[in-house]
Design a protein that fits this description.
Number of strands: 8
Helix content: 25-40%
Largest sheet: 5 strands, mixed
Shape: globular
CATH topology of the domain at 143-290: Nucleotidyltransferase, domain 5
CATH architecture of the domain at 143-290: 2-Layer Sandwich
Strand content: 5-15%
Radius of gyration: 23 Å
Number of helices: 12
């Protein structure tokens, strides 16, 4: 039997175009066989043996055979039928064979329309698949941040991409916006970002003209452990928030200094680096509608967590299969989403 080393040696002797062609053929063959998805499904099944009922959360369930290769269950408590994919992003999907290719395209940062063309699917399907997948990532937001936590905000212009009924004149470029257009008019979105020194992060988008104590509380309440240290710039809203939460140690520094002159451990370098990476992550999408921005923030945070994994596609499938509330979240999301007609 030919060894892996020998296969690599032969592969490297091929021209670049032949290498790309061979990789595409092997990837397609693997996708059509559904190997990665099957492997992820089998791993989840072995770990929990039986999936609890998504309707009543009962564990008194029993297996009832398979339909099209998907394990079926029946609940003894509510007497309802469900499958291994019920409630997940993969529920009721008829083209699962294309999902591995879709995830590959997502990893490359390809826009929705480009992926639709690449995989020969409609733009609406491409849009729906993306947000079904991203709806699976809510559970990966950290419940708490410990030790030293840097917090800062990143401002974006309010983006109404896809909205055909704008209440303002269209902007020719992203920088053509006015922050203040009347007392009640909100023109910006603040991405409040908290990053622990261990690397865990929370990014939350809030529509606001100016960052306020109330907005900070909406993001941070319950997220900082007792006696943790919150490091911020000297924005008065952070000071007001810390005053209302005396169990938090609050350290401030001038934003322009980057590092405190008296204590080099007090800085905002991690959170500023996250903001820089986030801008780069969002750039290929040519503007993200503000009402979809939170999904993209969760996407960035999840990709950052699995970037050192050698099986990123499998990690995506595992995330989808263990998130039983993803389909319900997507249904709620669709109520505010734009219907794409092609």
């Amino acid at each position: 039997m030919i060894s892996q080393k020998e296969v690599k040696s032969i592969f490297h002797k091929l021209s670049v175009s032949n290498q790309n062609s061979l990789l595409s053929e092997l990837l397609l063959e693997q996708e059509l066989q559904g190997k990665v998805l099957s492997e992820a499904t089998e791993q989840i099944s072995k770990k929990r043996n039986k999936k609890p009922c998504p309707h009543c959360n009962s564990v008194k369930v029993y297996k009832r055979g398979k339909q099209k290769g998907v394990q079926m269950y029946r609940c003894n408590s509510c007497d309802k039928w469900y499958s291994e994919t019920t409630g997940t992003a993969l529920y009721d999907i008829k083209l699962k064979s294309k999902w591995q290719s879709y995830l590959n395209c997502m990893e490359k940062g390809m826009p929705i329309k480009k992926i639709a063309k690449e995989l020969n699917i409609s733009i609406q399907t491409s849009f729906d698949w993306r947000h079904k997948i991203l709806s699976s990532l809510v559970q990966f937001i950290p419940e708490e941040l410990t030790d030293q936590v840097e917090c800062n905000e990143l401002e974006f212009a309010l983006n109404e991409k896809g909205n055909k009924d704008l209440k303002r004149k269209p902007r020719k470029r992203s920088s053509d916006f006015k922050r203040n257009q009347g007392k009640e008019v909100i023109t910006t979105v603040q991405v409040v970002t908290a990053v622990s020194r261990s690397g865990e992060k929370i990014l939350t988008a809030v529509e606001s003209k100016r960052l306020s104590k109330k907005k900070i509380a909406k993001v941070m309440d319950g997220k900082l452990t007792k006696n943790s240290t919150l490091i911020t710039d000297k924005h008065p809203s952070y000071r007001a928030y810390a005053k209302d939460n005396p169990t938090i140690n609050h350290k401030q520094l001038l934003a322009k200094d980057h590092v405190d002159k008296n204590d080099k451990t007090i800085h905002l370098q991690k959170v500023n680096n996250v903001h820089s990476q986030l801008r780069g992550f969002l750039r290929p999408f040519n503007g993200v509608s503000s009402k979809y921005l939170q999904n993209y923030l969760n996407w960035y945070a999840y990709v950052d967590n699995i970037q050192n994994s050698k099986t990123t596609i499998k990690q995506w499938f595992l995330a989808m299969l263990i998130t039983d509330q993803a389909y319900g979240l997507f249904e709620l999301f669709k109520q505010n989403a734009v219907l794409i007609r092609t």
